[in-house]
Amino acid sequence: xxxxxxxxxMSTSGAxxxxxxxxxxxxxxxxxxxxxxxxxxxxxxxxxxxxIRSRTAIIGGCAVVLFYLIAAFANFLAPYGGDQRxxxxxxxxxxxxxxxxxxxxxxxxxxxxxxxxxxxxxxKSDASKKIPIRFFVHDAPYKLxxxxxxxxxxxxxxxxxxxxxxLGSDRQGRDVLSRILLGSQxxxxxxxxxxxxxxxxxxxxxxTSGYFGGRVDNVMQRMIEVIRSFPSIPLWxxxxxxxxxxxxxxxxxxAITVILSLIGWTWLARQLRGKVLAIREEEFVIxxxxxxxGDAWVVFRHLIPAVFGxxxxxxxxxMPGMILAETTLSFLNLGLRPPLxxxxxxxxxxxxxxxxxxxxxxxSPALAIAAAVLAFNFFGDGLxxxxxPYSR
Length: 392
Hints:
The protein is mainly alpha-helical. Helix content is 61%, strand content 12%. A three-stranded antiparallel sheet has the order 1-2-3, with no helix packed on it. The chain has a two-stranded antiparallel ribbon with strand order 4-5. Helix 7 packs antiparallel against helix 8 (249-264) and helix 10 packs antiparallel against helix 11. The radius of gyration is 30 Å and the shape is elongated.
């Protein structure tokens, strides 16, 4: 009997060892198959495979897309217009949302009293008065996506004289949430347009400098060094202060975008110059030159596509810098000015310590800026890693 048990145990252990060997062999075959399949993929497919493996990059990319969707439909999402005022609710605190089975979402009405010592308005929630929150209400008219005229907003109140302030109101009784949503249109688009112009200038200048070399390279590099030798913020302040005060807001917006672009292209040009210096002696470039292709053809049809992945990475990482630059200039009253709405313009309300102490909700645009910058950084880091798909 003992011999039978020992034989059974030996056979069981042998089966387990065989199963383990089979699993190892299968895993090794799968890894080899996966490794061999990589050789049949294009560069963009390899970059995509590596990008989707990064969770932070996926989260950052989804957040970036969400920010631009919010900016595109900001007028619909905002319950009120950017300049719509509620005189009875100056510096009103944020409302708290409540939910009931019968009523649904609602808020309590605000009861206003005045402090006899400071003469400031003091708001208290009146639990006896419930204000239901309605969806798809009609309020301030606007153009959806700049094309469709409508007055439908995502949510609001039945009584147009009662404001719903989920993030409080400012010193003129304007809804902070609505102004943050509408300000995203200006802050995010100025970064997008500014980065596009910077990429166009930086790509052409950097690739041209690295391709021609010699005197052309020396002139371009000295020009870049002169621009980069000036401190960024004082230079932005000087150029922005030179704008005429009587210019309309749209012209100021365009001028600020151009100024940020003229300063921000030098970093990309330096990096692309180094990459072009490494690939200008490659076989495909020499073959194009020997076949009679001109310099412009080689630059725009061969060199720029060869470094296009790096350009996309730099564009993503440059977006936070553009957003912060516009915010800084507008915060210092040297960039965009009212009646335009941007996150930097909104932060002007929180410039003094009294506002930060008594009305902390005025700092909520800073949270939107931080979230946008983090999203772009996560997305850019993922693209930077994916740009080199062969690295571990």
